[in-house]
Each structure stands twice: as C-alpha cells, then as structure tokens.
Amino acid sequence: MGRVFLGINLEFVRREDKPFEWGVRKAAELGYTHVEPMVHWGRELLSEAGYFHSVSMLDDPLRIKRACDQHGVRPSGLSAHCPLCKPEISVEYLKQAIRFAAECGAPVVNTDEGPKPAWTTEDEDFTLMRYTLQEAARAAEPRGISIGLEPHQQYSRSPAGLDRIHGLVKSAALGINFDTGNAYLCGHDPFSWLARVADRLVHVHAKDISPAQSRAERGKVTGTPVGCACGDGVIDWGEIMRICRAVPRDIVLSVECGSVEEAARSIEHLAERL
Q1: How far apart are the C-alpha atoms of 191 and 196, rounded to whole Å?
Q2: CB-neighbour burial class of residue 243 (10 A; exposed 0-12, middle 13-18, buried 19+)
Q3: How many domains, the chain?
Q4: CA-CA 20 to 30 A from 137: which of 84, 95, 99, 240?
C-alpha cells in the first residue's frame, strides 16, 4: 500500500497574474506538500513578464527544482497536455516534457488525447495516438518517468475508451492520471472508475464539481478546466482516499481549483480526511 499526499495544480494562481515561483510559495504557505507545474513550448508574453504561472521548456528545468526546494515542496508531475491525435505537435512536445521532468524531479508527465483532427476517422486517430505514445514511452522508460493519461476528451470520456488508449502501447511507462471531476461530468461513477484503474494509477487530479455545474453539464461535456473547492461539491473525498491508499505506489491528489481561496478551503477539507 502506498501513501497519499496533498498537492495542487498551479492553475489555482492563474487569476492572480503572478509567476511560477509565486505560485509555489503560495502552495507551500497553504500546506501543500506537492505542486504540479504547467509547461509550454517556446515563449509567450504573460509568462515572460511574470504575469502567468506556466514555465517554458526553453527555460532551465532546474528553475522548477530550485523553487520547490526553496519552499520545501516537491513536483508531483508536469501538466503537459497535448493532442495525441496530432503527432506533428505531440511527439516532440511530450519527449521534451519527459526530458524536462527527469531533470527537474517530476515523476509524471500528464496528458490526454486532446481535440482530434476534423478530417480523421476513429481508426486513424488510434493509429496516430499509438505512434505518439510509442515515441513518448521510448523516451520515458529509460528515465523512469510515468506518462499519466487523463480522461478528458472524445475517446477517454468512458472507462472502456480510456482503457483502449492505455492499451495501445505495452509499456510500464504508461499509467493513468485520473481526474475525478472529468469522470463525473462525463456521466460515470468516479469511484468505480478509479477502482478500475487503480493498478495503473500514477497521479490524481482532485477536482470537485459544484452541484450547480453538475446540474448544468453532467453528461453533456467531457471535462472542465478546474473545479470548485474540494468539499464544496459532489465528490466524496474520503472514498477517493480509501481507493488511493490501496494503490501499491504513492499517489498525489493534485487539487484543480480556480483560486487561492478555493485552494485554502480544499486543503482544509482534504487534510481532515487524510
């Protein structure tokens, strides 16, 4: 049995107009032991000016390690979502994210299949995804990095669909980054789905869904960027933790919420159950 830790996706500071290092410090102040940075290709204005938390993979990966070490937290993984059905984007993006993760100390690189091309068939999409994941796995295996496949888009919106994507490549590097809120909004029972993938689980997006969002969107969408504060919504976090404790590896519950205030209430709620 592994341990369960409380982490947070850096999306919680995106409305604060602050840089990555500010977000790490705030997460540590709130009591989180892990953070999940978001990485991107190239350069963009807001991050370069210090108004956004995303880190360019053209930066030194040790930037992430230094910030985490300074504030006594660890990276749970990298948010490196890219469209697996578009290998012209995702192959090199994921390979660079995997190398970046290995150097900065993040054990997992998280992604989903992303929006598909408008003109491809389902069979073609799965062939494209297999190519992308095979290339990514070949980079991840020798570095000891796990690739966390998340339920979020058109094919992974069901347990069978996520299993099919995971089964495209036979590699110990491929695992599941389970998103509790996405699974619920897709119309499924997140607890039975989490138990179904427990033997492949490498990371969890702890996303709660408010009753209002549930009434408006459940069964109509494949996911949502962030949820409400954990404890304010429909997810039973005691049950989520019970399932995660039975996983043979340590699991970080990486909270996905939209504000510092929600992050504070999330960790208060989760810590009581932890």
Answers
A1: 9
A2: buried
A3: 1
A4: 240
- 196-209 pLDDT tens trace: 999 999 999 999 99
Per-residue pLDDT tens over the stretch 53-101: 999 999 999 999 999 999 999 999 999 999 999 999 999 999 999 999 9
3-state class (DSSP) for residue 44: coil
**Which segments of 141-168 does DSSP mark as H helices, in order?**
159-166
Answer for the pair 225, 249: CB distance below 8 angstroms, yes or no: no
Q: What is the pTM of this model?
A: 0.97
SS3 43: coil
Find the CATH number of the domain harbouring 29: 3.20.20.150
Residue 240, Cβ neighbours under 10 Å: how many?
A: 24
CA distance 146 to 189: 25
Domain that holds residue 207: 4-273
